[in-house]
Amino acid sequence: MLFAEAIFIGIAVGLLAGALGIGGGILAIPVLVYLLGQDPHAATAESLVIIIVTSLAALPSRFKHKQVRLGTGVLFGLCSALGAFAGTRLNALVDGNVMMYCFAGLLLVVAGVMLRNGLKQRQKEEEILSSGTTVESLDSQEDEHEQKLSVKKLPMFLLVGTFTGVMVGFFGIGGGFAMIPILVLVMGYSIRVAAGTSFIVITVVSVISLLLRIGTPVHIDWLIALLFAVGSGIGSAVGSPLSNKARASTLTFIFVALLVLVAIYTTVVTALS
To answer: From the CA atom positions of the chain, what is the Rg in Å?
Structure first.
């Protein structure tokens, strides 16, 4: 029964992850710990397996709709390597419950930042629509503000990449929650392009973080992780095209609501455990 649950829950997580442009870690961690009975430290490692499969499954649709900036994604991912190493080592030193509280707090901070961006985004959309532009043309309007990849941005890439790597290594999350607002703010990407590009970052840094766990005492339940990953991959492949059916600001608001709900649930359940 546990294995069937892993597959079906994985599909549900993948649908949300694919549609919202996240690797699924922010959902996989509490699910693995509270619904599938995994140790928090093991869950962070198993989540990386799930994230890699989910991200790769979502990419074909994103490439098809030209929502991926490959160079930016790979560079950000490689800049995360040092942070991933530090985060992985720190993960082994922190108590499981403390880690879950930190995880919830991080989600609330990110939700606040994304809510602010979403409100600004909605205001711009309304201004564009009031001028007679159709909803379908909103993305092309946003793409005009994209900035090109340049050497001048390398220090910012290293700084943000290191921070993202620490988050991925420590929490076992893909980093999409951090990458999406950064790509929107620093590179001027639309929410859809930021989400698509974040899958490249997520894949690169998750592979690095998983490899860094080799030789550590963390036990990975590979069967649970792989079944969850398969379900999540299927859900992600279906969910990714759904993002094209909603306004960018709507996706941002859904993302924020999801972060807040997961943060509250994690805090309450950890306090009661």
So the answer is: 18
